Amino acid sequence: MAEITDTGFVVKTQNEYFDDEKQLYLDIDPKWNLDPSTPDGLKIASDAEILGNLDETAERAYNSKDPNKSSGLELDVLSAITGTVRSPGTPSTVTLRLTGVVGTVIIAGKLSESPIDRTQWATSINATIGSGGFVDVMATCTIFGAIQANVNTITSIVDTVGGWQSVTNTVTATSGSYVQNDPSLRLERNSAVSKPGNNQTDSLIGELFAVVGVRRVRVYENFTGSVDANGLPAHSIAPIIDGGTDADVALAIFRKKNPGCALHAAGTSVVVPDVYDLYPFNTKTITFSRPIAVDIITVVTIQNDGSLPSGAGDEVKQAILHYVNGSLFDDVGFGFNQVGFGVGENVKFSRMFTPVNSVIGSYGNSDVSGITLNGSMINVVIAVNELSRWTEANITVVVV
Fold it and tell me: Residue 335 and which of 155, 258, 280, 308 are 20 to 30 A apart at CA?
């Protein structure tokens, strides 16, 4: 049977059980006919399968108590102990330009649609069309996942409002994420262990990751008495958050910000006034920033050995999008970076071979003959206040 030793849980394989039981029979009679076609041979095979399955079940039960080995529902249960919940995914966000009669009020939640894929996008806040005949407002996709929306593709008004005449998106949407995979949940759980603490950067990061819709978090800190290399003023922190509503993010910062510590906007500034938690008389203006998006133009050239299907190019595109969002691999045993690219993280040229090979490697001996990022075969440098942005329209796959 399986054992728990000083090195961990040790299982016996089905083949080992088969050999052991077979030997017990032969110890009684070396000439015993144990051919798989005989009743005794079939019994040994059946016993070995049952005992092997029992060992595997016991191993899963043992691993379920270890956050580094548990998976699925077992990991959800462990994570709940520290207040960490697996994200069901996050929606994509985009800036919509609403055009119409000056003074028209468009309340939050009004829907616009992309005629291309029929995805719908809801405005996040109340908006009033200004003197220029338009207003820019943030909108959120109504379904979770890495939904794409290129410039000028959200052009249909679903919820009509008198005075609202047209809509479009002037920028590419920032992709959301799919259901959180196990490796990402493990990392978030580790961060959440520090969440109950105070006066430390880790507790702030844990609180921010717990905000609904947050995808990426980076908190820079300057505890010195002068401006640092990142441009942070003395004794300040600079939270940069991708995803989540402004109000929810501001409240999370309010709850964990160190007393007397200045807040600095390193990226696209967001200022939320009059934020409080328990006491309405104790309000503060919270300043943070959103990362500045850097679009990555990717061109992949694949030498086909004849084994690739006609849709291989599309498969590679989807693999790249999953990889950069941290959702390509669900098994920690792969050994690759499994959380995508974060705020201020350079895009390493060599890493982009991984998602491509994960597709073509399952078919035959085709190989990658070239990859370029923004026109070059070098790393793309991302500043501390930037975040790489990946869209399907910016990925080209050439199969030759």
Answer: 308
| Whole-structure pTM value | 0.64
Interatomic CA distance for residues 383 and 294, integer angstroms: 9
3-state secondary structure of 156: strand
Measured between alpha carbons, how far is 349 from 344 in angstroms, rounded to an integer? 16
| Residue 9 C-alpha from the chain's centroid | 31
C-alpha distances out from residue 235 to 225, 226, 253, 399, Å: 6, 8, 16, 53
How far is residue 17's CA from residue 50's CA, in Å, rounded to a whole number? 10
Q: Cα 331 to chain center, whole Å?
A: 15
Residue 367 CA to residue 40 CA, distance in Å, equals 50
What residues contact residue 26 under an 8 Å CB cut-off, 6+ apart?
32, 34
pLDDT digits (tens, 9 = 90+) for 297-330: 999 999 999 999 988 999 999 899 888 887 776 5
Contact 395, 318 (CB under 8 A): no
Summarised one tens digit per residue, pLDDT across range 72-95 is 888 888 887 777 778 788 889 999
Structure tokens belonging to residue 81? 């102990």
